[in-house]
Every structure is written in C-alpha cells, then in structure tokens.
Design goal:
single chain; about 220 residues; Four Helix Bundle (Hemerythrin (Met), subunit A); disordered N terminus
Length: about 220
C-alpha cells in the first residue's frame, strides 16, 4: 500500500511522458507557457506532481523556468540548430567511420530488415512509422561503433533531433528523400567503405540541417498538417 505523501512513480512517469511528447510532437510550441493547474485537472493528478515533472523537463532543457512567472517551452534559435547539427555531423560521421570496418553479416541482415520496414512504411504512406525506422537506423550504427562515450554524447541531444525529425519527415516526399540517403549510407557500410560511409552520413546530416534552417519558423513554430 502506498504511504501518505508517497509519490506514485508510475503515474508521474506517465505525466512526464505525456508532457514531453506534446513538446516533441509540436502540440506545445517553443515559448508557450504551461499552466500547472490546467494540466493537473486534465490529467487528474496533483499540481505538485505536475510542477515536479516541469522541473525534470527543465533540467532536460525542454522547459525553462522564469522566476515569478512560470514554466515555458524552451525557445530554440537558428544558431542553436546550426551548432547542434554541426556537432552531430562530426560525431555521427566519426561513429560511422568506427562502425564500418566492424560490420558483419548479422549486422547487415539487421539493417536490411530496417530498410524493408522503412520501404513498407513509405509504400503505405505511414510517415510516423518511418520516423521510427529513421531513428533505428541511426541508433543501430551508433550501437556498432563500439564507443559508449561517443554514443552518450550523441544521445544527449536525441530529443532535440526528434523534435525536428517529426516535422521534417512528416512530408512523404522528404521522407522518401531521406530514405534514399540512408540507403546510400547502407550500401557503403555493407561494402565496408570506411571513407565513403562517413562522408555520406555527414552529407545526410548537413542536408537535414539546411532544410531545417530554410524552414526554421515553420518547423519550429508551425503546425503539423
């Protein structure tokens, strides 16, 4: 039995996931104020639980606290997008360089299954499912690189990447373009070409960055169609 005053960690985790997903999936916009009372009433939980979740999300850089004013979805600048994607390009390129010589037939089959799922998703116009396979492709290469510290550094900004993946890849044409870029990386990876594979990965991330910057206001503050 839960003691008086004891936090229901399962319920708090659900509240955390709901608010976090609303931020990442653009239901809550950057610079939007969050009202703890409204969310508490909607979700049927206490205001103190909601405020605690807000504090956790602020530590994760998804929210910001303005003293005597409240919590807001953290604002994102163009420079921040450029800086983070520039770092991502270097780090994921390096991770791909490390992973390529280590690839074996089992790894290739795992990646082939990812591409088969991605192709089915695109054929069925299921862009939301395709986003999952996009994430899985990048994560799989990170898993193969053999450098846990490098993985941790890259994954530190995983929510930031997902925020822009969701809006960028929800368009079928753009999702198909990303798929083709991924497949070229896979082919170089399969050939164990440790020069071409990281080069293609860097070009893929640079391309994503440029598209985000060109559509910055729509991608950051607009709505999903």
């Amino acid at each position: 039995m839960k003691k008086v005053g004891e936090v229901d960690t399962n319920l708090e985790e659900k509240v955390y996931q709901i608010i976090k997903e609303r931020i990442i999936y653009h239901q809550l916009k950057p610079d939007e104020r969050l009202i703890d009372r409204n969310i508490a009433e909607e979700l049927g939980v206490s205001r103190s639980m909601v405020r605690h979740v807000f504090s956790i999300l602020a530590k994760e850089d998804l929210l910001r606290l303005i003293p005597r004013n409240g919590f807001y979805v953290r604002k994102i600048s163009k420079k921040e997008v450029e800086d983070i994607y520039n770092v991502r390009k270097i780090l994921e390129g390096y991770a791909t360089r490390l992973a390529t010589p280590k690839v074996n037939q089992k790894n290739i089959k795992e990646l082939e299954k990812i591409f088969q799922r991605a192709q089915r998703d695109l054929n069925d116009q299921k862009v939301h499912s395709f986003i999952d396979t996009d994430i899985q492709f990048h994560q799989t290469i990170l898993d193969y690189c053999g450098n846990e510290n490098l993985k941790k550094i890259i994954e530190q900004y995983s929510d930031f990447y997902l925020f822009y993946r969701v809006i960028d890849l929800h368009r079928l044409k753009r999702a198909r373009s990303s798929y083709l870029e991924h497949y070229k990386i896979f082919e170089a990876f399969k050939d164990k070409d440790a020069e071409l594979a990281p080069k293609l990965m860097e070009e893929h991330i640079e391309n994503a960055k440029q598209i985000i910057l060109q559509n910055f206001d729509q991608y950051t503050y607009g709505k999903l169609n």
